[in-house]
Every structure is written in structure tokens, then in C-alpha cells.
Design a protein that fits this description.
The protein is of the alpha/beta class. It contains 13 helices and ten strands.
Length: 307
């Protein structure tokens, strides 16, 4: 591949998806784009770069970006953030919002849907104390093909084995000939939508919780700053942002601060920042105590054990 061709690919990926690649990723370009060469009957990557540089094939440019997107994901990936969401954030939001207010959750890099459906399973397992609380889960990704799979909710045995506890499998999936399908009530809970994090996010609305995990690691510093500022703008004043274990807001934005004692959990900065943190802990403890005092049978063991 010529230096010019590499520059074309690098610019396309950076401008359209924020993905930054260096010369050490030549093998990745060759591996992921070779199927496109065969599909479009293009001799080599230089020929593909020439077509892209002409700027007359939007479908091809989109296909290149999708092919280079990393879609590594699995259910309840790195369990700690999901446990924090279940045990602290969800309880706090439920206690602090009017009964008529819906909670809005955003899986900001949904890929094939495992993260969004993991959140849906937590919500379903929490229904004994959430009651009739409305929950909306929005799941977005830049790539269409993974989103189509996510909407269908079909998963292979291998994908199921990566993170789904047996109790959750029995309760929330139906066995099918080619694998498993997530239950209809959970599919109805999630709205999958194509969206680019580098574009205007305001049409998506305000969210109480944002999961944007293992995305920033692919961006350069200016893009990280831009995306974090945009995420902070879409977050409710007392909302919570979950990042990946290798990601941070440190030195990138002053609008998001880490939650003390909770790795990868961030809150919006506001005049009430300290108060919010205290209220979250107090509300979580109070809600848990109230539930334990209820004279009802305890819920069955679920995705994370007994709620």
C-alpha cells in the first residue's frame, strides 16, 4: 500500500468516525478491507483508496468505515459497571424522580446489542421495586450491520456463553435452532438507532445514564475532548456516565468528575456536585432498606443474583 493510499484511509476514518490509525495498523486495513476488495472487484487497497479519493461513492466510504469499526462486545462486559448501575445509580434515580418520570438510558456504542440488553435485563430483574416506572433504553452505533443484528436479538451459543448467567439465560432468552433469541419484552425496551458520536447529539435528548465504554480508546486527544463535552451536554444534571476501564476524563474535560470509590463512573459537574454524591449513597441505602422491610416474597435470583 502506498503512503498516499494510507493517508486516504486514515483521513476517512478520522473524519467520519474519530478512529485514529497509525502505520502500525497496516495489517488491520489489509485484514478488514480485503473482503470489500473482492465484493467490489477492486484489485488492491491502492485502487480502493483511489475510488474513495474521488468522493463519488458514499456507499463504499460507509462500508470502509463499518469494516474498520471494532465490534468487540459481550453481555455484562466487565461486570463492575453493571453492578454499580443496578445497586446504586438505578436506585438513586428511582428514588429521586417523580413516579411519572421515565428514566432514559443510552448505550452509546451498542454494536450488536449485548450492552443494551444487559441493561434491559437489569431493569427487568429490578421490576419488583421499580414498579411501573417507565424505562427507555436508546442504543446507537455508527455501523448499520451490527445494529441490524442487535434489533433481531439473535445470538450464537458462543456469544451467550460470554457473560450470560444461567438464570438470566433461562428467564430472558428463547432457544432457537441456530442459537438463542432475547425475549420480546426486552427487545421492546430498547430502541436501536444509527448515530455518529461526532455529529450533533442533541436530537437524541437528555439521558439519566450513559454507557460509552471502550470507545474513547480509539480516538485521539482532541476527539476525546470533543466527545466527552458532547456527552456531558446530553447528561442530566445528576446523571451518570460509565466509561471503559482504560478510559478517563482526566485532563480532557472539566465537566465530568469521577465518582469516589467507583472506577469508570463519572458525574456532571454542577453546583450541587457534592450534594448529589451524598444523596446517591443515602438514597441507595434507604431504598435497599425499604425493600428489605417489605412484607412480600423476595424476587428470584437473576442476572446478578438476588436483587
Amino acid at each position: 500500500m502506498s503512503p498516499h493510499a494510507f493517508a486516504v484511509f486514515a483521513a476517512l476514518l478520522r473524519n467520519r468516525s474519530g478512529l485514529t490509525i497509525g502505520p502500525d495498523k497496516l495489517y488491520l486495513l489489509e485484514t478488514r478491507l480485503t473482503p470489500l476488495l473482492r465484493q467490489h472487484r477492486i484489485a488492491n487497497l491502492d485502487g480502493l483508496a483511489t475510488r474513495l479519493a474521488q468522493g463519488r461513492c458514499e456507499k463504499l466510504a460507509r462500508a470502509v468505515v463499518e469494516a474498520m469499526a471494532t465490534n468487540e462486545t459481550y453481555f455484562f462486559r466487565d461486570i463492575t459497571p453493571f453492578a454499580h448501575f443496578r445497586d446504586h445509580t438505578l436506585r438513586y434515580l428511582h428514588a429521586s424522580r417523580p413516579a411519572s418520570a421515565s428514566l432514559r438510558l443510552w448505550s452509546a456504542a451498542a454494536s450488536t446489542g449485548q450492552e443494551a440488553y444487559s441493561l434491559a435485563m437489569i431493569v427487568a430483574e429490578s421490576s419488583p421495586w421499580l414498579g411501573a416506572r417507565g424505562i427507555e433504553i436508546v442504543a446507537t452505533d455508527i455501523a448499520r450491520t451490527p445494529l441490524e443484528r442487535a434489533r433481531a436479538g439473535h445470538y450464537t451459543q458462543f456469544e451467550i456463553q460470554r457473560g450470560v448467567p444461567m438464570a438470566a439465560l433461562v428467564r430472558h432468552f428463547q432457544k432457537q435452532e441456530a442459537g438463542w433469541r432475547i425475549a420480546e419484552n426486552l427487545r421492546a425496551m430498547v430502541r436501536f438507532q444509527e448515530w455518529n458520536l461526532l455529529t450533533d447529539l442533541s436530537p437524541l435528548g437528555r439521558f439519566d445514564v450513559i454507557f460509552c465504554r471502550n470507545v474513547l480508546i480509539y480516538f485521539d486527544r482532541p476527539t476525546k475532548m470533543r466527545v466527552l463535552e458532547a456527552l456531558a451536554e446530553q447528561l442530566a444534571p445528576d446523571g451518570v456516565l460509565y466509561l471503559g476501564g482504560a478510559e478517563t476524563t482526566l485532563g480532557l474535560t472539566s465537566r465530568l468528575v469521577p465518582e469516589p470509590g467507583a472506577p469508570s463512573v463519572y458525574r456532571r459537574v454542577s453546583d450541587a456536585t457534592g450534594t448529589i454524591a451524598l444523596e446517591m449513597n443515602a438514597s441507595s441505602s434507604a431504598a435497599a432498606s425499604a425493600i428489605e422491610r417489605r412484607p412480600v416474597s423476595r424476587p428470584r435470583s437473576g442476572a446478578f443474583g438476588t436483587s
